[in-house]
Design a protein that fits this description.
two-stranded antiparallel ribbon, 4 helices
Amino acid sequence: ISYTGEVMGNVSGGKRRGARYLDNLDIIVEADLERLAGWNGAQLHVYGLYNNGRSISDLAGDTQAVSNIETGVRALRLYEAWIDQKIGSSASLKVGLYDLNSEFDALDAAGLFVSSPHGIGTDFAQSGRNGPSIFPSTSLAARVEVSPAGRWKVRAAILDGVPGDPDHPKRTAIHLDGRDGALLVGEIEAPLDYGKLLVGHWRYTARFDLNDASGAARGNTGTYVRAELPLVGDSNRRIDGFARLGQASGRFNMFDSFVSGGLKFSGWVPGRDTDEFGIALASALTSPSYRRAAGAGRAETAVETTYRAQLADWLWIQPSVHYIRNPSADPATHDAQIG
């Protein structure tokens, strides 16, 4: 069980000034089914989630989401429920309600930051009729992972193309409809010295409305490359660098390109070995067809600086400051400063 409480205020720019309190309660139960029921190589994972539904993006006016625990609705829901079955010594099959960002498009170093684009990239997160199967709405999925050699991994998944119920966002819903199509995603994870490199590709099988309102078509796809690598590392101090490039189909999506990167510092404060701090940037570039249709600017760019301090075995505090240039790429919205 873990609880996150977050106070954020928009001190200037954006839509309007103000403050919000957001929260996130995680209740996770995992069971070794081999020990409990004699089911060889199987693990059960059940994940309950509560959020109060407050929004800081309503004040900031941003699209990328300055808080990674914002949901927009107050709800207690079943978030994940899957079984992971080992297959031999180097493969596994996972089936059930599944957050694809728990394994796909995820880096450890980027996990320090509290803004959403450093979880899953904005190019991928924006896709689909109700987003892909990520926080806070997940869909039924099947994922296969193989470790062919050393630290190499190859994973692929097929997921319901519309997670949850867009008309009833508070519910956990599994509704399989041929019109929803499927989301197909594959990723290769390669070792990179003491870091790793991710190369992924995703595709929806359903038809989507075009940005220019001229009709609907298939071909909503995207590709990303992501890496993390220790730049400085010894027994006491460490600097990890990370970067990501992503592309999505510009005919359907608001953003057709995305770039992010940052630095995470660990062990640099005397006497506080577990503290971490960092700086990161995320920029989402609008597609030409979206700019023509909406009169939008070229990009939304967000910069975050943050410090995470451990006060006890069970308690952490993390102040952060954010600057958002051109929120939602809207020329009428001033740059936002949030802390």
